[in-house]
Amino acid sequence: MGINPTEAPPDPGASFRICPPTAANIRFFAGHLQAGGLLAIPTETVYGLAADARSPEACQRIFSLKGRPLLDPLIVHLADVSQLPEFAHPNEAVARIAEACWPGPLTVVLPKKSSIPDLITAGKTTVAIRIPAHPVAQNLLQTFAGPLAAPSANPFGYLSPTLPQHVTNSFRQKSPWVLDGGECAIGLESTILDLSRPETPAILRPGHFSAHFLSSLLDTTIPQHYTIQPGNQPASAPGTFARHYSPHTKLALFHKQPPSPNPPPDTARVLLQRPAQASSNLFWLSEQGDQAEAARSLYQLLRQLDNAGYQRIECELPKTDSGIAAALRDRLHRAAAP
Ligand code: TXA
Ligand code: MG
């Protein structure tokens, strides 16, 4: 990571619950999930809190542990695209997208089949499907041989976890077991592409795969995702909460110019790139201003600063809206929303 080291206070968390992904542990946890248990799993985007998607009782435990409203549907994770017709109605558009993007950091919304309980989709007629690429997630999904519902493994509304310790530090004595897959390579949640009406595809959440790239795969123009600006009212539709992915510390955003030449001592300032002159409360997401590195570092740095006793965090917004910068801007706006 390209961030400068500020030691967060030691956090005992529940780190003994973090398990290496040995063959024996994968077999054990596949059985634990089949018996209705919860497990935090690594993916290339963020850690997920997984349960058997065929079991409403198991998935109810996800909502309870996260404090997540039942109107917010869960993503269903599969090992392979060949399993898709068991749970959703595929179409030609998803076949094209799957070829290029799966396994990978993409979620597709499709008409659901009755094999997915209504609890998981919040009563909707559609289901969100993802096939993650992380080798540990793949190994577990293949051994489990079924669908795993998994939202991000954080208390509802807080920053998503990109390290196993983020999960145990958030849930402490209530923490589920965590399969250790190291640091998440992308660090922001998957792109969500709605293909339930394939003639009008829509991006519900920007991520690693951009609107531009997905449009080229479908020979159409998918509109750029609309980013909620701070101050907007939360929308009532699932998945469009204005405030989300937020630290507890007050977060303010700035465009080109920071609000003052130097931040006051109670304020941490986060820049996209390492500044020419360092100071103890200046932080950066990437040495060279690389956007993918900034995306990977964002939640980790915000968590670190959230535990460091600052009254306020100021964060620089990316100037462009292309590629992963669109996802960074979206998450920053949501993190800073009132
Ligand atoms: O990268 C990711 O997608 C991670 C990893 C663990 O896979 N998962 C994740 O899940 O971010 P979650 O639950 O934190 O975010 C899923 C989003 C929610 O905003 C939810 O409302 C939306 O997907 N969603 C789920 N099912 C949907 C559906 N049928 N229609 C529209 N939105 C849906
Ligand atoms: Mg989430």
Q: Which strand-content bin applies to the residues?
A: 15-25%
Tell me roughly what share of residues is in helical segments: 25-40%
Attached small molecules: threonylcarbamoyladenylate, magnesium ion
Radius of gyration: 19 Å
The overall average pLDDT, rounded, is 91
Give the N-to-C terminal Cα separation: 29 Å
Q: What is the count of helical runs?
A: 9
The number of distinct β-strands equals 14
**Largest pleated sheet:** 10 strands, mixed
Structural class computed from helices and strand pairing: alpha/beta
Quick one: overall form?
globular
**Looking across the biggest beta sheet, what order are the strands in?**
1-8-2-3-7-4-6-5-9-10
Describe the model.
This protein is α/β, with parallel strands linked by helices and 338 residues long. It is 27% helix and 16% strand. Strands 1-8-2-3-7-4-6-5-9-10 form a 10-stranded mixed β-sheet, with helices on both faces. The protein has a 4-stranded parallel β-sheet with strand order 11-14-12-13, covered by helices on one side. A hairpin with a 6-residue loop joins strand 2 and strand 3. It binds threonylcarbamoyladenylate and magnesium ion. Threonylcarbamoyladenylate binds next to strand 5 and strand 6.
